Batch of 2 targets.
Target 1
Amino acid sequence: MKKLMIFPYNNDVEAALQWVDIVEKYQLVYIGLKKEQDSLHNVEITNCELGIDVKKGCEMADIILLVDDPQCRDYTVYQEIAMAAKGKEVILDKSLYTKIGKGYFKGCITNFNFENEFIDYFHKNFLYEINAPVITIMGMGENCDKLSSIFSVTSLLKKKGFKVLGICSNALGILFDLKVIPGCMYNKELTFTEKIIWWNHVVYRLTEEEKPDIVVMEIPGGILPINKFENNFFGELASVMNYAIVPDICIVNLYYPVSLTDEQAEKISLFCDYKFNAKVNAYFISKQQYRTDSEQEKIIYLNLSEKEYIENFPADLENYKTVNILARGELEEMVDECITILSDNIDAI
């Protein structure tokens, strides 16, 4: 088991830690904190240290996993880690590698999360049938706990004995043996149609090679614009990935609502059905809220505490299932429902 360091600590890392007990390939030994996070050093994680001494973390670890931080404007600490990691494997997304600067990684063994693995998966101009049932996890936008959801769903399915092919958009997926969506998906030179065919071929090849019982796929970005400051690329990736592979089960993550009605849930469900051919089976309620900063013309995300999340959780809906993502019992119940749905659907199996 290889020793792993992660930098930085953020909401996605926090989500991953909820399921770290089932990680098999890595021993998490150090989580690097940003200087303004120093107060978190007393967070207790079994056999793992948290701290701002990233050089110490590099010395302790065999592998360093760098996670992009959308709010980051200064990559100095990332650069310090890259220089301290000479001779070691550094796993990161290629976009983050570019932001940090290629020159800082001299002497490192860089791993770009399957970046080059799927480039040639584009041979025929038609869509293959995927020989496994597919669960997709979509969201209203960025930062709505989709990563936490795929960790939960894949982990629980594996615990129940299913062989799962999980696909996510974050480098943290390697902890749970998930494939990470390669950069080709964001390639502006590929047309909309080419991306659909290419992604279908990628997933088809993976299912033929790995023979999973179930495919669970997180879809990056959002399904529609939030407002004029955040267009979520007008749901392009949701369209591409759902057109490429029609899901058997669809989960949608919602930002934490002030209120949620059956009418609102119905409108979202109809939208997903008509636009993506994805019938919504459940809504997962995120810990994240968003606010609009009109002066700076951007969206600000707020991460609720566990107390705030539970105290103000929306009332149950009459016609749609809402899931508390912090309640493992509710997550297990939802996964059991997914298994029942797929068992009753001969076409999916």
Target 2
Amino acid sequence: MIGFMISKSRNWIRVTASLVGVFTILPLSAELPSLNEKDFLGYFIAFQTKSAQFGLASDGKISIKVLDDKGGPVSSRLTVTINFKIEQTLPNGKIDNLKINPEALESTQPATMKPKNVTFKGTLENGVTFEVCASEERGALLLGGRLLNPSEVKNPTRFGIEVKFPNALPEIRGELSKKEIKAFEDKIKDDKVDIVRVDGKKVKIPGDKPVDPSAADFGGPGITSLSAEFSTYQKKEIQIIASPNSSMIFTSKETEPMQKGFVLMWSADLVKDPEGKARMAVMVK
């Protein structure tokens, strides 16, 4: 079992991982089971807070839907998605993303809306096997994983978690008047993404200014925490935190405002975390 302590520190949420057990590999079922609840059909695990709806589907893909004050999604187009990634580095230095077959995902545990240390595994065509762990802790979704047979892999291979933020700009229909343009600009002027880097430096990225988030001035040596605030999420704040021995990087390289969407990749330090104890926490406040 992996325990987490989630506590507020200034304006950030601190996530500390403590090992109280290890991964256990048990006989597996043929596929990931799914819930039968009306709002969560097809999900392996799901839960809801007052601010967001979290779901991990039976195909292994995760969706996070920010909720409005009435308890419904602010918009389906604003869903934040999370995917598990297995990357190998080829002899020529090129990074190759290995495809995960949803039909090869397996678990001994039933579908649940109260996920605590839920695990499932998968096997890729090249023989790489991996394990994923997911839990809910005080309204946060905790995710982690590891390769189960790294010594059998020919090329350097790592497990990662990719987080995709969609275009969060308000929808525009038709041509705007000068007054409407001013109102639009006023609405999005406070959009921002705040990060804390591995070296402790805090960086504030304006949401409406074109930037290359992968540039050294922003992500630098890696990111330990990120907070995203956009007007379309109705004052909700999306926070992502990497536990000790893990970090995140921006992988989107287009020079665009952060409001138009960006991609973040989490991974653990294979030297410091060979047993896959590190976690990424996602929450909406």
